[in-house]
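At this stage, I put together one protein's amino acid sequence and its C-alpha cells, which the following lines show:
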Amino acid sequence: MIRAMLRRQWERIFGGLDGQYVRELNEAIGPSSGTLLDVGCGFNSPVQLLSHRPERLVGIDGYLPVIEQSRAKGIHDEYHLMSLLDIEKEFGPKSFDCVLASDVIEHFLEGDAADLIAQMELVARKKVILYTPNGFLPQGEEYGNAYQRHLSGWSAAQMEARGYRVVGIEGLRCLRGEMARIRWRPWRFWLTVSLLSQRLVRNRPRFAFRILCVLERQ
C-alpha cells in the first residue's frame, strides 16, 4: 500500500517530465506540416502522437512485419516496403515538406547513413528531422529484427557541423544504456535524475543521451 502510494506520488510530481521527445518533435514539425515521409517508420512510430496530423503521412521500412503492425494501427496513410537507401529514386527531389528518421541512422554503417541523410535532404522541401543516440550506443538484435543492431554513431558536434540545429533529449548521456534503459539502481532514483537533467542538456546537446537534429530549408 505504501509503495503504491509512493509510486503514485512520484508519477504526479515527475511523470509530466517524461515525453520530452514527443513535445520537441511536435515543435520541430510545426502545426502546418503538409506532407511527411517517415523513414524507417517501424511498428510504433512517434508520428502517431503528433498534435497535428500531416495532410499526407507516408511510412517506409525495409522489414515487412513492422509495416504490417503499423498498418494495423492505422498510423500512416500509405506504406512502402523498400530499401531506405532508395528514397530518392522512389520519391524524387523535394517530394515531401518534411522528412523524418526517428532512431534510424544508427542502424546503418557510417557511409550508408551519410548517404541516407543526403537523400533525405534532397527529398525534403522544408525540413529534415533526425533523432538518434548521441554518439555510438551498442545495441544488438531486438524484437527478432536484425535491423535493430546499431552500426554507427552520430554526435551532436557532427550534426551541428552539417548545419543542423541540435536539441538534447532524455537527460544526461551517462545515465542510460542500451534501449535507453537506466544504468543503475535504485532505478526510480536515477530515472528521476535523468528526467530532471533534461532541462540541463536541452541546450547542451553534447551531454545528452539522444539528440533531435533539425535542418530547415530557406
The longest strand covers residues 124-133.
